[in-house]
Design brief:
Helices cover about 0% and strands about 40% of the residues. The protein is mostly beta strands and about 160 residues long. The radius of gyration is 15 Å and the shape is globular.
Length: about 160
């Protein structure tokens, strides 16, 4: 949850989406669906665990949304995706960070240190610690091909 503008983000494995809800009105604001490659068929990037760092980045840019994608869910990589900005400022291309196998258990943000902690589902007690940069490095999505995404905003 991003309590600053009262937004709730939900990750969805099957639809490979990050859904944004208005926490005050209990209303759908929209979603972003992530996939690898462009054209037909695009390969879905299922998302599972999610966390928000709402105050990082240039002032008022929407912060960062983090989510995990796992080979256990049918993804091509075990990664945490740093997604700059949120629904208010429109999502941006994710920055991938490799993590331990099957990061399906959880992700947490330490806002005082701007770090993300991703647990591994394959080895009890395994955690990957990632830096949450104010200005994310611009890197390709990986060897699997470019990432694309579609955004839907509810009217």
């Amino acid at each position: 949850m991003d309590e600053t503008p009262n937004l709730v983000y939900v990750a969805a494995v099957g639809s490979h989406q990050v859904v944004a809800l208005d926490g005050a009105a209990d209303a759908l604001l929209g979603w972003a669906a992530f996939h690898r490659g462009f054209g037909d068929p695009a390969r879905p990037v299922p998302t599972r665990a999610i966390a928000v760092n709402p105050t990082i980045g240039p002032g008022g840019d929407g912060g960062h949304v983090w989510t995990t994608t796992s080979t256990g869910d049918g993804s091509e990589s075990d990664q945490a995706l740093l997604i700059p900005k949120g629904i208010d400022a429109y999502f941006h291309y994710p920055v991938p960070c490799d993590v331990g196998l099957h990061p399906t258990e959880g992700i947490a943000i330490d806002r005082s240190l701007d770090r993300a902690y991703v647990s591994s589902g394959s080895s009890p007690g395994a955690v990957t610690v990632l830096e949450d940069y104010a200005t994310p490095p611009l890197v390709p999505f990986g060897e699997s091909g470019d990432i694309g995404f579609e955004i839907y905003l509810a009217e």
